[in-house]
Amino acid sequence: MAPLRRLLLCLCLALLLPPPAAPAPTPAPGRRPDWAACRILSRELSRLLATVKEPHSEGMQLMEEDPQNWPPRIRCSDSCDPLTLESNNTRCLHRIRQALQHYRDLLGSDIFREQPQPQLETTMEQLLRHVHEGPGRPPRPPPPAPTKVWAHPFQRHLALKRLRSFAAVIGRVFNHSAR
After folding, report:
1. CB 122 within 8 A of CB 107
2. Is 179 helix (H, G, I), strand (E, B) or coil?
3. Per the confidence metrics, is the pTM higher than 0.90?
4. Of 52, 92, 141, 168, most Cβ neighbours within 10 A?
5. Is residue 20 one of the residues assigned to a domain?
6. Chief subcellular site (predicted)?
């Protein structure tokens, strides 16, 4: 009688537990990122960002707009932590790719027309090529709508501030993965 009762309790317990999580997507077998090259390029990106001079940026305070309009950024749910990167890096690389494309396009937009950053753009392109999925060149979406010229210094400052933060995070991801 006791074994039957134990079996019934186990069955009831199994019904109360949530279903097992779906298996994580496996990375594409064909192409893996060159982690060492990504580490070098992310360091170069951070170095270049540190050299960008912004006139009149001291004391510039910007009101952050709605978080819905923020550029892609790495979140905890993107699985960029060291343990997850070892087993499956697909989600993390996808998010990095999205943000790199966003910042690449921003650097080529009208807000940087007065203060172009060709070295930054080149480094971003190279980094994007290393983390891009599949053959070919990553697509470029249409350029963003032109903005008011008076707002360009503020937008440029905000874009560079966010890009610096993003570069620090991806530098950590690539540094860990290149070990």
Report:
1. no
2. coil
3. no
4. 92
5. no
6. secreted
